[in-house]
Amino acid sequence: MNTMTLWHITPWEFAALAAAALLVGFSKTAVSGANTVSLAIFAAVLPARASTGVLLPILIVGDVLAVLTYRRHAHWPTLWRLFPAVAAGVVFGTLFLVWADDGMVRTSIGAILLLMAAVTVWRRRTADKTGEPDAVATRTGRIKARSYGVLGGFTTMVANAGGPVMSLYLLSAGFRKLGFLGTSAFFFLIVNVSKMPFSVGLGLIDGHSLLLDAALAVFVVPGAFVGKWAVNRINQRLFEQLVIAATVVGGAQLLLR
Fold this sequence. Notes:
Helices cover 80% and strands 0% of the residues. The protein is mainly alpha-helical.
């Protein structure tokens, strides 16, 4: 059966989903957090809850490409600090999805993203910049990692919107561009794969959604190549500004929809 007929989407809607998949590839290899725009497109074309199940495998394809591109730049001490808190956030997010409606989910995540963007901008203006991502070694750094980890796990589970949360954490921890991309690549590959059983259990992923994913996954690849080309032409300051701007746009979209 034709995938578009199965989902009752028009050629223009499929084109919008294909563009969103292209943006996923770009965000994974260039400006992490920009895929909140993809999240909004998927939720606009498909039913809101179903859109999270369709988008997750697309994100995993992008994660694999990002890991292949930046695997040498990951900072594993940061990842090990984050994973326990993220696991708790994923469980909390799963419970939240059981009873929360779409409006509550969008409002909660949008508010969190905007608040964290504001906090990150304020902290970066008042704190000295450090060249190494060693903030996790201090007590304050550990508390911050756990807080962001729980929020990241929660937002990635309920709406695949963990990218901006973790982007803000990595920026606040002092990561430079390649370390940022390498660490986030492994982080999201592991987290997104671990979310699959929860999404299947909630009925967000099934045979129909995987058929649509198969049709859209091919568009992630050129987006990733464009991102790899672009990231070498973006300086550190512009890179940080783009990440924060993408977070604000994504949060505003969730609140205004």
